[in-house]
Design goal:
The complex is a heterodimer. Chain A is mostly beta strands. Chain A folds into two domains: 150 residues, no CATH class; 154 residues, no CATH class. In chain A, the strands form four sheets. Chain A has a 22-stranded antiparallel sheet, covered by helices on one side. The longest helix of chain A has 17 residues. Chain A is globular and about 60 Å long. Chain A starts with a helix and ends with a strand. Chain B is mainly beta. Chain B has one domain: Immunoglobulin-like (Sandwich). In chain B, strands 4, 5, 6, 8, 9, 11 and 12 form a seven-stranded antiparallel sheet that branches. In chain B, strands 1, 2, 3, 7, 10 and 13 form a six-stranded mixed sheet that branches. The chains are: A mainly beta, B mainly beta. At the A-B interface, strand 6, strand 7, strand 8, strand 11 and helix 2 of A face helix 1, strand 3 and strand 14 of B.
């Protein structure tokens, strides 16, 4: 089995590499250096993407290497055959020489209606596998009313209520995400979801109703009312009313309307009381100052309610968000920092390339450094021409240079 | 779009629909997935190592607290790891409120809670440490672990997993 998979991998890679034709690609590699560690280079990652265009189709090979080995190999194809849009993905785990996941999607638009077919298969190397299944999606509009019907035959597809499937390498935590999830209990018909939206009343901006049954029977019906007008120009709220077989759940989400913000942005939040449909007060969770001029962006983010708000890591935009929102969105965030000073510079570099610099300084409660300074990170991107770039990242804390990484990116 | 192409597309979709509704079902009858606590194998880079602990399919608002035994009845057994260097960090809102890695050699216990919300799927804990041997291990004894959901009710039916890949 493993020998076959390795052979398939090699044939696929060789096929993409050796085929004559219009190739395009992107290669990005990063080395991490630990100044205090026993080994000089303590991290490595490299991502290679090769695109090959054939008529209306683009086939892609994506290879990802980490310091512990060859982590992901994905082959994908996307294009159209006449009016039908087609997409396919197949994912392997070269570390263990295993097939992990495959997905096929066909979509067509006819007279304002969208029809889609989604198939997925999960390999037995993945917890929950082997599994497979497919789903049909029909969407359209009648007047101002939108409707979506999803018929599930062993698979679910991503929508507003469902995130699809994420395959995680358990040891490292690295992951890949896809639309079609075949890990659905049962075989044959497993579910039917109907969503009707685009409805409105004078006092409610948007009304959406979702009805979902599974092969086990009625699952839930959900009514979502967004932007309910209260008569107060600073307050609106959303209401979700969900009925399950034996339970009814009402979720009220009040929202403050604070108007247009120019450069100093306050983050107000309503404090829910007990019972949860009451409001105990308004809290100022933080303040963000933004100033932009000639490719220079300065930001100052202050967390005023550390138990409720956090600053996300640079990979997630260094945003000031509530902890609940950070968790729900899957953002990584810093727990201890109450202040961020950020300077970002973007400009033209040599030979038509561009450069960008990002310097973030963080401050925390209890730090013995000046002004409570805790850590500064520096990220630089230096374009050499339009196809090549060098990257440099440094992290400095009270003990000195904490980490450093260098890398390059190349497009052709 | 030519009418022939359009009808080919409609025909293809109708065939797929007919096959599906006629019972041309998948190969596998997927079983109901129990909630799982997933303990990753030790990841080693040089002399440093780490272990990730994740959950999937946690019911009733998700996992909000977890206890790995007690001192003297620890749920975690480790080897070839320097106990003095173990640092546990909560993820996705989890905070470690009590921990002990050194009282009994090769044994660890801790309590972690999530104040803001329960976690249905995702990483909840990460342990970093210095490895001291060629085969570092970090194993969890399921019988000594207790898990509670977002309503402070024990989740009693769950599995322990150490597979190479999982989904969420």
């Amino acid at each position: 089995m493993r020998r076959g998979i390795i052979t398939l991998l090699l044939v696929g890679l060789a096929g993409l590499t050796l085929s004559a034709g219009p190739f395009a690609g992107h290669w990005e590699t990063l080395f991490s250096v630990d100044p205090d560690g026993g080994t000089f280079v303590d991290g490595f990652q490299s991502m290679l993407t090769i695109d090959y265009t054939m008529s209306t189709f683009i086939t892609t090979s994506y290879s990802e290497f980490q310091e512990f080995g060859f982590l992901w190999q994905e082959f994908s194809a996307a294009g159209s055959a006449g009016a039908i849009d087609l997409q396919g993905n197949i994912l392997f785990g070269p570390l263990t020489a295993e097939f992990l996941y495959a997905q096929f999607i066909a979509e067509i638009s006819l007279g304002g209606a969208e029809l889609g077919y989604y198939y997925a298969m999960l390999g037995e190397a993945v917890l929950g596998g082997p599994a497979d299944g497919f789903a049909f999606r029909l969407a359209g509009s009648i007047g101002s009313m939108d409707f979506v019907s999803i018929t599930e035959l062993g698979a679910r597809i991503a929508d507003d209520d469902f995130d699809g499937i994420t395959i995680v390498h358990t040891r490292s935590g690295f992951s890949r995400s896809y639309i079609t999830d075949p890990v659905v209990p049962g075989q044959g018909f497993t579910g039917q979801k109907v969503t009707i939206g685009g409805l409105s009343l004078g006092c409610v901006e948007g009304i959406e109703a979702t009805f979902y049954i599974t092969c086990g029977g009625f699952d839930y019906v959900l009514f979502e009312l967004d932007g309910i007008v209260t008569g107060l120009n600073w307050l609106s709220f959303d209401m979700d009313l969900r009925f399950e077989v034996q339970t009814k759940t009402i979720t009220m989400t009040p929202a403050l309307i604070v108007g247009e913000v120019l450069c100093l942005k306050p983050y107000f939040a309503l404090v829910p009381g007990l019972p949860s449909i009451s409001i105990d007060g308004i809290v100022l969770g933080g303040v963000e100052l933004i100033y932009r001029s000639n490719g220079v962006t300065f930001r100052d983010v202050t967390v005023l309610d550390a138990g409720r708000y956090v600053i996300t890591t640079p990979e997630f935009g260094s945003q000031l968000v509530s902890i609940e929102d950070a968790i729900a969105s899957g953002y990584a965030y810093y727990v201890d920092y109450w202040e961020l000073l950020s300077l970002e510079v973007d400009g033209e570099a040599c030979c038509g390339g561009r450069y960008s610099l990002l310097i973030n300084s963080y401050f925390e409660e209890g730090s013995t450094e000046i002004f409570g300074w805790s850590m500064t990170s520096f990220e630089g991107w230096f374009g050499i021409g339009t196809n090549t770039a060098l990257t440099l990242a440094l992290t400095v804390d009270g003990d000195g240079l904490e980490g450093m990484s260098i890398g390059f990116a190349f497009d052709w | 779009m030519g009418p022939r192409i359009r009808w080919i597309g409609v025909g293809a979709l109708l065939v797929c629909l007919a096959l599906g509704l006629a019972g041309c079902r998948g190969f596998w009858n997927t079983a109901i997935q129990l909630p799982k606590l997933i303990v990753g194998p030790v990841m080693v880079t040089g002399t440093e190592g780490y272990v990730l602990i994740s959950v999937i399919d946690m019911p009733d608002g998700g996992i909000a607290s977890i206890q790995f035994g007690t001192v003297g009845n620890e749920a975690i057994d480790f080897a070839d790891i320097d106990a003095a260097t173990i640092v546990g960090v909560g993820k996705n809102g989890f905070v470690i409120t009590a921990e002990d890695y050194t009282t009994n050699p090769g044994k660890a216990t801790l309590l972690a809670v999530n104040g803001p919300t329960g976690i249905i799927g995702g990483e909840i804990l990460r342990f970093t440490f210095t490895v001291t041997g060629a085969n570092p291990t970090f194993a969890v004894d399921k019988t000594k672990v207790t898990i509670a959901d977002d309503s402070n009710t024990f989740i009693t039916v769950w599995d322990l997993s150490t597979t190479d890949y999982h989904t969420r």
